[in-house]
Write a structure and sequence with these properties.
The chain is α+β, with helices and mostly antiparallel strands. The chain is about 30% helix and about 20% strand. It has helices at about 5-10, 30-45, 55-70, 70-85, 150-165, 180-185, and strands at about 95-105, 115-120, 125-135, 140-145, 170-175, 190-195, 205-210. Helix 2 (about 30-45) packs across helix 3 (about 55-70). The longest helix has 16 residues, at about 70-85.
Length: about 220
């Protein structure tokens, strides 16, 4: 990452335990180098194929696994998202989001027990269900086999999003999220459901927490 990017990222990183007086030893490699290695991996390759100008792959993996297991990856992501939103003139916590899904072809090494066939997209693999804010920043994600329907996965996804983002009032979705999801939302105090006709390109369906309405102040 550039010096300018690092200047933004550094103060948002979780503080290591040894700096808080909680014991442990300082890491052997700088966080900047480790993060650069993780970013390279996500974009380009596999752990054991890490180029020699990065720290050793096993050290990078141990760092990533430790952060993942202690939910520090999510913590860092949430802090960074809040900073980006504030820079864009929005509150750190969103009040509205957009829900959608995408089926992805699975690699040959992916086990049959975690993949499925999406008959609509003719894809054998997995499906990621996401909620993003109005800036396109990730708020929540659920990964399933590709044969799981959007409405079924949305139940877990909406529960995850509302728990993590207390100000979330509105989740926009296309007409494919109606039906059983409406029946799921209506009896619950956390979510009510409204939908419009999907006959036009502008038509959407939406969920409002706590019996809210889509009218009033503009969502952010």
């Amino acid at each position: 990452m550039t010096d300018a990017e690092w200047a933004v990222v550094r103060p948002l990183l979780p503080v290591p335990g040894w700096l808080r007086g909680r014991g442990g030893q300082p890491e052997a490699y700088r966080h900047r180098a480790i993060l650069d290695a993780v970013r390279y991996l996500v974009d380009n390759g596999k752990w054991r194929a890490m180029p020699p100008d990065f720290p050793p792959w096993d050290q990078v993996y141990a760092f990533f696994r430790r952060w993942r297991d202690h939910v520090l990856v999510r913590e860092f992501h949430d802090r960074l998202r809040g900073r980006v939103r504030e820079k864009a003139g929005q509150d750190a916590e969103p009040t509205a989001g957009v829900i959608d899904s995408q089926s992805i072809k699975a690699d040959a090494v992916v086990g049959a027990d975690s993949r499925g066939f999406d008959g609509g997209k003719l894809i054998n693999g997995r499906k990621r269900h996401v909620v993003i804010d109005t800036l396109g920043l990730l708020l929540g994600v659920v990964v399933t086999s590709a044969d799981i329907g959007d409405r079924a996965a949305a139940k877990a996804l909406l529960a995850q999003a509302s728990e993590a983002h207390y100000r979330l009032k509105l989740a926009w979705a296309d007409g494919g999220y109606t039906g059983s999801l409406v029946e799921h939302c209506l009896p619950r105090s956390a979510w009510s459901w409204r939908s419009s006709s999907a006959a036009t390109t502008r038509a959407v369906s939406w969920c409002c927490p706590s019996g809210g309405s889509s009218s009033g102040s503009s969502p952010t």
